[in-house]
UniProtKB/TrEMBL annotation:
NCBIfam families: aroB. Residues 60-172 form the 3-dehydroquinate synthase N-terminal domain. It comes from the Bacteria. Pfam families: DHQ_synthase, DHQS_C. This is 3-dehydroquinate synthase. The lineage of its organism: Bacteria, Pseudomonadati, Bacteroidota, Saprospiria, Saprospirales. Coiled coil: none annotated. Residues 174-315 form the 3-dehydroquinate synthase C-terminal domain. Keywords: Cobalt, Lyase, Metal-binding, NAD, Nucleotide-binding, Zinc. It comes from Flavilitoribacter nigricans (strain ATCC 23147 / DSM 23189 / NBRC 102662 / NCIMB 1420 / SS-2). GO terms for cellular component: cytoplasm.
Length: 359
């Protein structure tokens, strides 16, 4: 097991059983509340149950998926916590992907003004990204993660065994954040990644740790997103808008799929606004296009996408804020782009994917 220490908690990578068992024995919580959805109950709970069965515990099962990451599901979680007589000395274990991590952590942080929680991410996306950095929250009025708090877990247990039951589509979605980490901070890792042609043959544990280290380094320097942390937003200004819009259609996109769209469009903006070379633009967009299904954007939706972008929490005054790439492996935060430039980047995206489903 590898340990990555952060200022006030540790990330453990590897089989969690012994480490969690020792930790629980040390801590003495009044009750454990384990949040699962139907998939993590079936595939992941059997690994965790033997470790927690010696303690008073309740399982809180919520419906799976982003379209349940809202207030109503929080009410269900808080109600079950209340019925289980949870108190501030209880511990929540978020056993699931980014939706459970963000929402479960948010519910634990607000229930009776806050109880401890542990992240146990079970998707690739949550293992390399969502479970660390302390951002918790839910979607509200179609705006992603618009209600939430910053609060750190007691620990994060990243166990690659969970990935065995994850679908190829979910793995591909998580891979988007690994691509992003390398593009903003690690040219060498990017050069290695871009040799990948078949995600089915990837040794995931080998990619997870370096990717985690990039996020760890950034969130430690800037835990509340006042500056450097905005670097992690590369691909997300446009990606979040595309994701938010797609959520309202009958063809919702996974988070990483929307971020892949955003990364292509924002790489184009990087080329237009910074020194990113035409060659780098082509290499990056070509790699992303090879990995992800094309999703052509209907130009009639561009005004709606712009509206969603202007609601992004990271904006300051009226301008839409971007983190862009001067070169592969480095990033510049607090860039802005005009609506016309953003539309041009969406048109570029449409051109390079050429055909595909419209959202
Ligand atoms: N807090 C942050 O810093 C941060 C960063 C990035 C993304 N996010 C959030 O993360 C969310 C997306 O997370 P996600 O991609 O993990 O989606 P998710 O949580 O919806 O999980 C995806 C699907 O996989 C299933 N699943 C989970 N683990 C499984 C396993 N081991 N085997 C089989 N099925 C499994 C889930 O039930 C779900 O159906 C978004 O809401 C996004 O906003 C947060």
């Amino acid at each position: 097991m590898e340990t990555l220490p952060l200022q006030d908690y540790n990330i453990y990578v590897g089989d969690f059983d012994q480490r969690l068992s020792d930790w629980l024995a040390e801590k003495v919580y009044s009750r454990l509340l384990i949040i699962v959805d139907q998939n993590t109950k079936m595939h992941c709970w059997p690994l965790l149950e033997p470790v927690v069965s010696a303690y008073q515990h309740s399982l809180i099962e919520i419906p799976a998926g982003e379209d349940h990451k809202h207030l109503e599901t929080c009410q269900q979680i808080w109600q079950t916590m209340m019925e289980a007589r949870a108190d501030r000395r209880s511990l929540t274990i978020d056993l699931g992907g980014g939706v459970i991590g963000d929402m479960g952590g948010f519910c634990a942080s607000t229930f009776k003004r806050g109880m401890d929680f542990v992240q146990m991410p079970t998707t690739l996306l949550s293992q390399v990204d969502a479970s660390i950095g302390g951002k918790l929250g839910i979607d509200f009025m179609q705006v992603k993660n618009s209600i939430g708090v910053f609060r750190n877990p007691q620990a994060v247990y990243i166990d690659p065994r969970f990935l065995r039951t994850l679908s190829a589509r979910e793995l591909r979605s998580g891979f988007a954040e690994i691509i992003k980490h390398s593009l903003i901070a690690d040219r060498e890792q990017w050069e290695e990644l871009r040799q990948i042609s078949d995600l089915g043959k990837v040794d995931w544990p080998k990619l997870i740790v370096p990717s985690l280290r990039i996020k760890q380094r950034i969130v430690e320097i800037d835990p509340f997103e006042r500056g450097l942390r905005k670097a992690l937003n590369f691909g997300h200004t446009i990606g979040h808008a595309v994701e938010g819009h797609a959520l309202e259609t009958d063809a919702p996109l996974l988070h990483g799929e929307a971020i892949a769209v955003g990364m292509i469009a924002e790489t184009y903006l990087s080329h237009r606004q910074l020194d990113l070379s035409a060659e780098a633009l082509e290499t990056i967009t070509d790699f992303i296009r090879r990995i992800y299904e094309p999703v052509a954007l209907d130009p009639a939706t561009f005004p709606e996408l712009l509206r969603l972008m202007s609601n992004d929490k990271k904006n300051e005054s009226q301008a839409i804020n971007f983190s862009l790439l001067p070169a592969a492996g480095s990033v510049e935060v607090n860039r802005t782009a005009s609506p016309a430039e953003i539309v041009e980047s969406l048109e570029y995206y449409n051109e390079i994917v050429a055909v595909g489903n419209r959202i």
